[in-house]
């Protein structure tokens, strides 16, 4: 029996129609037209007609908007590539700091978000002004590697990340759901960018090898004019694809969060037990304290992204208990790190690095306590998962403000 007759015979059986569609969507759509012509008065088939053809109709009506967005993205990608190449030239001449390369990419991502979600004029003016001030300020600093200057190089990207978040959220910058969407965007962006970058590296390796076969070494030229340009332009393309709801990144991120959380928890437990066993002391070993703080930041990042991908399901599952265990473990690590930093400050005095690390650890401690309390209430059925997500999203501006404080004050405080 062909599909046409099967559709006609199962008009009164919605479950069977859905099963047939999911089994072979292309065959179903191909046969549906004939069944619809034979039964034009069927309300069930009328609903299916709209379902199968709505996207095509919507695309026809609104075709101009995606086309304009694609064209604008292309222009921004080219500008980002050219800007990055120009900035890299001055970096090579040691006229400016390498961190300036961020200004070859991040302002253009912000510009795409502003175009995609036009904010009010005051938000637009604030964004433009802060990017200009940041770029001007960075290049007014002495080009050296003192601790306070290095801290600027480390914290400025975090501040700029906050500005991109403002561009992404637009007029809804105060809404937790919009901030949550920005966090999800970041994870999807990095997954997609990494996937395309790996493909680009394979193409670059193949290209260089082909030219070597004809005794031409184009490695330096290719890096400066192709790889550098492509890496910058690719960031704009990735932002565009994620904002267009590309399913690749959106489908894989929840699984990555669920897989990595238990792996990180297990690895961290084994590592901490090993550290205690071999007798490593973060109070006396500076390098180990730095590594300890790096672990803390990694655990915090994994926990936050796991929470953002958990959705709004009221039901508790094993991932929630793993996240809670990670948060408790992170709090233990943070407590040890804080104690070690306070000890080093009291023993060896105040330095830019120690003060910056102390501030970051205090901020992280406050955030982890808020998330932990929210999680406890959720696991006790006192609140829903939205309170946990609020503990994450409402705290984001605090990190950006701290990054701004370190960036714009430390070079003067520790002159």
Structure notes:
This protein has 415 residues and is mainly alpha-helical. It folds into 3 domains: 59 residues, no CATH class; 178 residues, no CATH class; 160 residues, Four Helix Bundle (Hemerythrin (Met), subunit A) (Up-down Bundle), CATH 1.20.120. It is 81% helix and 0% strand. It contains 16 helices and no strands. Helix 9 packs across helix 15. The longest helix is centred in the middle third of the chain and has 38 residues. It is globular and about 85 Å long. The protein starts with a helix and ends with a helix.
Can you give me a brief rundown of this structure?
The chain has 415 residues and is an all-alpha fold. It has helices at residues 3-9, 14-23, 25-38, 43-61, 64-92, 106-116, 121-140, 147-169, 176-213, 219-243, 247-278, 286-308, 318-348, 352-379, 386-393, 396-413.
Total helical segments:
16
Counting structural domains, the number is 3
Tell me the radius of gyration: 26 Å
What share of residues are in beta strands? under 5%
First-last Cα distance: 84 Å
How many strands appear in the DSSP assignment? 0
Structural class: mainly alpha
Order of helices and strands: HHHHHHHHHHHHHHHH
Biggest sheet features? none
Descriptive terms for the model:
single chain, 415 residues, mainly alpha, Four Helix Bundle (Hemerythrin (Met), subunit A), globular
Compile the SSE list and pairings:
Elements: H1 3-9, H2 14-23, H3 25-38, H4 43-61, H5 64-92, H6 106-116, H7 121-140, H8 147-169, H9 176-213, H10 219-243, H11 247-278, H12 286-308, H13 318-348, H14 352-379, H15 386-393, H16 396-413
């Amino acid at each position: 029996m062909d599909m046409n007759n099967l559709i006609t015979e199962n008009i009164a059986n919605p479950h069977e129609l859905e099963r047939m569609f999911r089994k072979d969507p292309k065959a179903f759509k191909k046969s549906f037209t004939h069944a619809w012509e034979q039964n034009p008065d069927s309300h069930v088939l009328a609903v299916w007609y709209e379902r199968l053809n709505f996207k095509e109709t919507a695309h026809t009506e609104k075709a101009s908007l995606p086309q304009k967005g694609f064209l604008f993205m292309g222009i921004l990608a080219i500008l980002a590539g050219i800007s990055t190449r120009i900035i890299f030239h001055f970096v090579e001449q040691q006229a400016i700091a390498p961190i300036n390369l961020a200004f070859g990419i991040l302002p253009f991502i912000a510009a795409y978000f502003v175009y995609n979600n036009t904010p009010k004029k005051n938000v637009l003016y604030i964004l433009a002004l802060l990017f200009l001030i940041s770029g001007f300020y960075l290049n007014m600093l002495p080009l050296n590697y003192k601790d306070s200057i290095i801290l600027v190089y480390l914290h400025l990207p975090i501040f700029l990340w906050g500005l991109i978040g403002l561009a992404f959220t637009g007029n809804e910058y105060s809404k937790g759901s919009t901030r949550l969407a920005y966090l999800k965007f970041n994870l999807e962006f990095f997954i997609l960018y990494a996937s395309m970058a790996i493909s680009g590296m394979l193409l670059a390796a193949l290209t260089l090898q082909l030219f070597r076969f004809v005794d031409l070494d184009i490695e330096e030229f290719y890096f400066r004019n192709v790889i550098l340009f492509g890496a910058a332009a690719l960031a704009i393309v990735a932002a565009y694809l994620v904002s267009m709801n590309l399913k690749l990144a959106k489908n894989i991120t929840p699984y990555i969060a669920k897989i990595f959380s238990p792996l990180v928890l297990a690895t961290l437990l084994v590592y901490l037990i090993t550290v205690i066993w071999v007798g490593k002391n973060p109070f006396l070993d500076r390098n180990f304290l730095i590594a300890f703080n790096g672990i803390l930041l990694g655990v915090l990042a994994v926990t936050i992204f796991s929470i953002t991908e958990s959705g709004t399901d009221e039901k508790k599952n094993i991932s929630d208990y793993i996240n809670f265990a990670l948060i408790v473990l992170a709090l233990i690590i943070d407590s040890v790190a804080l104690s070690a930093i306070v000890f080093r400050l009291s023993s060896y005095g105040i330095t830019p690095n120690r003060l910056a690390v102390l501030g970051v650890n205090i901020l992280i401690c406050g955030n982890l306590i808020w998330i932990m309390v929210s999680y406890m209430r959720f696991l006790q059925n006192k609140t829903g998962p939205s309170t946990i997500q609020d503990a994450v999203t409402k705290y984001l501006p605090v990190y950006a403000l701290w990054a701004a404080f370190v960036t714009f004050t430390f070079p003067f405080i520790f002159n």
